[in-house]
Specification:
The complex is a heterodimer of chains A (about 300) and B (about 240). Chain A contains eleven helices and 13 strands. Chain A has about 300 residues and is of the alpha/beta class. Chain A is elongated, with a radius of gyration of 22 Å. Chain A starts with a strand and ends in a 13-residue tail after the last helix. Chain B has a two-stranded antiparallel sheet.
């Protein structure tokens, strides 16, 4: 069953188009990575899915309902981001204690154990927490709701290395125990790659790629060899990225195809790419790189 | 297989009301401070003097009117306060829709108004004790709640509903302001201009002054408050969260 079904969703802020004709479906019980560069529209998309903001045109369905002002969607989904707020008059402990009234699947035991593990102060106020601790608390809150659709927007922002690793581990363990749909946005794909089944890559408000992790890895390859040869091998291909390695050698990334075998026979150095690299090259603005700036 | 939790609007609103009551309980301190100020200001609220032959009589009337005015101002500011961004966003960290949030706010303001109305009414007894000890004048008490229970209860009810209506005024002003600053100032200008015209004064006279009984006034005020809250709900329906 589709948890999310988006058809030609558009959303614009005053002058810019944040989302343009976003179309994708998300089936249930999968961990999907929402990947994109800064300003690609990840946060806007998540806010629309969580019913926090309204889209301009197109159709958004979460659990078969338009999420904006829908109680069923609100009760079964949560968006964890660094803008989550809680009343200052309540302590962290009181916040966690008031959650079960709202979230029917709230896991008190998980919340308490994570809270103790990460050594948060139960008498502290939410707004007084450091950036990392606040992110940790929000993450605990989000995981413990056990919502059928759990969304994280850059959840590890501000967390230190150890907490990040623990968070990914906790997410995976809890997901295995309670399978549900998890959508996690990040611009550090390499960090979350081991968690993901699917990747939804968006760039400049458009869906560029929606595939499972292995397909993404297979999508493109890198090739290195003498300049003339590389140009021959990639002629007529969609080159995602190319750069000069030195005077004689050229490095190019392009979509995988049948010509590859011939190139291999001709002595090309073919390198497999990680999903993270594929995503980076697919969303890069120019054929060159940062080096070109300093030429 | 997905198992979606079904939740009714009523139960969400109830949970929100409970949550808000505990989260906003600090407002009680502001209320107490204003009530104490009301008692202090009440002494000699209005006075009149006459003298016959060589005897001069000075009459000082102390009432809870000043206290009620202070608490009314509090009601307006609390109504406005809970429409601000921080309070609105807090709701959406839990289960909420804009409708449920507005209904919960409306109920919470009514509960606060009940509390404020009843306690403000009873500050009159505190004031009497205060006056007995602090006044060198001859002290004449007004009727107590036991002398005329029905009328006293009606007065309390009227105070509650008026406070609620005041909070609704703050609420709609806040909602307008959050929605569109320009809209807020536009509405403000229109209201001030209306207040300056004769017809508007006549309308408010019909509503608030020319009533055959206090109960009719209470009913009218209640209706106005409901109308204002409903309008605010309609206005806030397109407000985004965490934008």
């Amino acid at each position: 069953m589709n948890v999310i079904d988006c058809q030609k969703v558009n959303k614009g802020y005053r002058r810019t188009n944040a989302l343009e004709d976003i179309t994708f479906q998300l089936t249930d019980q999968k961990i999907t990575g929402l990947i994109g560069r800064n300003g690609a529209g990840k946060t806007t998309l998540l806010k629309i899915l969580a019913g926090l903001t309204k889209h301009k045109s197109g159709e958004v369905n979460v659990f078969g309902k338009n999420p904006y002002n829908n109680l069923l969607v609100s009760a079964n989904s949560i968006l964890v981001d660094d803008q989550m707020t809680f009343p200052d008059s309540l302590t962290l402990e009181e916040i966690l204690r008031s959650a079960p009234a709202f979230y029917k699947k709230w896991d008190t035991q998980l919340a308490v154990r994570l809270f103790q593990y990460f050594k948060l102060d139960s008498k502290q106020q939410h707004s007084k927490l450091s950036k990392g601790s606040r992110a940790t608390f929000n993450m605990i809150f989000g995981l413990s709701t056990h919502c059928e659709l759990t969304m994280f927007d850059e959840p590890t922002n501000g967390m230190d290395e150890a907490v990040r690793t623990d968070f990914y581990r906790a997410l995976l363990k809890d997901y295995i125990a309670h399978p549900r749909s998890i959508l996690i946005s990040s611009h550090h794909l390499s960090e979350i790659e081991h968690l993901l089944e699917d990747i939804l890559l968006i760039h400049k408000g458009k869906v560029v790629l929606h595939a499972d992790l292995d397909e993404v890895k297979e999508y493109a390859v890198a090739i290195q060899g003498p300049v003339a040869d590389v140009e021959k091998w990639t002629a007529g291909e969609e080159v995602l990225h190319s750069k000069r390695v030195d005077e004689q050698k050229q490095y190019a990334v392009f979509k995988k195809n049948s010509k590859l075998e011939r190139a291999r026979l001709e002595g090309a150095n073919i390198q497999m790419l990680t999903a993270s690299e594929v995503c980076m090259y697919m969303t890069s603005e120019s054929k060159g790189g940062i080096d070109d700036v300093f030429k | 297989m997905m198992f979606l939790s079904n939740i009714s609007l009523t139960s969400v609103v109830l949970s929100q009301v409970k949550f808000k009551l505990s989260a906003y309980s600090g407002l009680i301190y502001s209320l107490i401070i204003l009530q104490v100020l009301g008692i202090l200001f009440a002494t000699g609220w209005s006075s009149s003097g006459t003298s016959i032959n060589n005897i001069s009589i000075n009459l000082n009337i102390s009432s809870i009117d000043s206290g009620f005015i202070f608490v009314s101002l509090l009601a307006i500011s609390v109504g406005n306060l809970i429409t601000t961004r921080a309070y609105r966003y807090d709701d959406f960290s839990f289960v909420a829709t804009r409708l449920s949030s507005n209904i919960a706010n409306c109920i919470v303001l009514l509960i606060f108004s009940c509390y404020a109305g009843v306690t403000t009414y009873f500050t009159v007894y505190l004031m009497r004790i205060f006056l007995t000890f602090n006044s060198t004048n001859e002290f004449v008490e007004g009727p107590t709640i036991l002398d005329d229970p029905m009328n006293s209860l009606l007065t309390i009810l009227a105070m509650i509903i008026f406070l609620w209506m005041f909070s609704s005024l703050g609420y709609i002003a806040g909602t307008l302001f959050q929605n569109h600053k320009l809209l807020f100032f536009g509405a403000l200008v229109i209201i001030i201009m209306l207040l300056l015209t004769g017809t508007w004064i006549r309308i408010s006279e019909i509503i608030f002054v020319e009533n055959s009984s206090l109960l009719i006034l209470v009913a009218k005020t209640f209706g106005i408050a409901i109308l204002i809250f409903a309008t605010s709900t309609a206005i806030s329906n397109r407000l985004g969260v965490r934008v």
